[in-house]
Design goal:
Elements (H helix, E strand, L loop, with lengths): L2 H19 L3 H12 L5 H6 L12 E11 L2 E11 L3 H14 L4 H4 L5 H12 L5 H15 L2
Antiparallel strand pairs: 1-2
Helix pairs in contact: 1-2, 1-4, 2-7, 6-7
Length: 147
């Protein structure tokens, strides 16, 4: 699947998920593209996990190596990631995390402002200190593809 095909598929799933969650679908599609390397990551292919969501109590899971930023240094760890039956299931779960999680209350206050929303979710979603900047750049790229 090329980048444009991935964006069309991700955006369609994001729009469908957004109907229930109210999350901005363009941001969701951009975050999926960033986190999954346009749907080419091992995690997205093995587990329909497009956001690097870690497994919790009831999740089916896959173990994968991942890079994390700890105290300013990159480290490689093996983590249990959630496994989903489809892209839409993953997107709905991601939206639920943001819609209900206390960490994302400030993001929910930015739902009318995509840049503000990106800034707020980036504070807690990833350990990469440049995550907001990377997601904003991806947002602009994805937005251009959908015109």
């Amino acid at each position: 699947m090329n980048k444009e095909e991935f964006v069309r598929q991700a955006y369609a799933a994001a729009v469908q998920s957004s109907e229930q969650s109210g999350m901005p679908p363009l941001v969701t599609a951009a975050q999926a593209a960033l986190e999954s390397n346009w749907g080419e990551s091992g995690l997205s292919k093995a587990a329909n996990n497009y956001f690097g969501i870690k497994a919790h109590a009831g999740h089916d899971r896959v173990l994968m190596r991942t890079n994390e930023c700890e105290h300013g240094s990159q480290v490689v760890i093996t983590a249990a990631f959630a496994k989903y039956g489809s892209m839409l299931e993953c997107f709905r779960y991601r939206d639920g995390i943001i819609a209900k999680g206390a960490l994302y209350s400030a993001a929910r206050k930015q739902l009318g402002d995509e840049a503000g929303f990106i800034t707020e979710i980036a504070k807690h979603w990833a350990t990469d200190p440049k995550y907001a900047e990377k997601l904003m750049a991806m947002f602009s790229e994805v937005k251009g593809m959908l015109k």
